[in-house]
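Protocol step 4 of 6: structure prediction from sequence.
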Amino acid sequence: LEAAPVFPLFLPTRSLMMMRRAAVCAAIIGASCFSTAAAAAAAAATVLVQCNASTLQGCPAGLSCARQDEKWAQCVDCSAAQFAIDCPYLWDANLTAAAEDVCGRPCLGHRGSQCISISCDASQNLTCVSSAEPWSQCVDCESSAFHADCGFWSEEFLAAAETACSSVCHSRIRLL
């Protein structure tokens, strides 16, 4: 028999940072979903499960173990849909690279996702737009998509996107 791992009451700083990132990302995913059921399903699918960094064992069926470094590995869902949700927001560069290797798929940004640590999916004709803010986002410069999205961007990001896409936004919303 093998003893079950004992988790100390005090978690290392890295674990706390990963848990905080997961909580923030779950909130972002929940806020971006259109229904309560979709938000619940997305949040349930992003549960953090640690696996053995030395042996790459210990993941439940359907998940694969990706090693971030010699001390941290976690189980990742390699299905196309969940991978596309998790990779842009929940993983740092090392874990993303490990997940890409173990899952055999690239982590590419989709319309509206960040492109600070990953590239935008060129097959979807997306452009990575950066503003003076510490944010970069994949933007679809096709006219209907651009106008559907541009009304929600900050003034600073909008200016950068208009330049990158050679387009002018006519869909600005006015907030009270």
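Step 5 (inspection) to follow. The radius of gyration is 19 Å.
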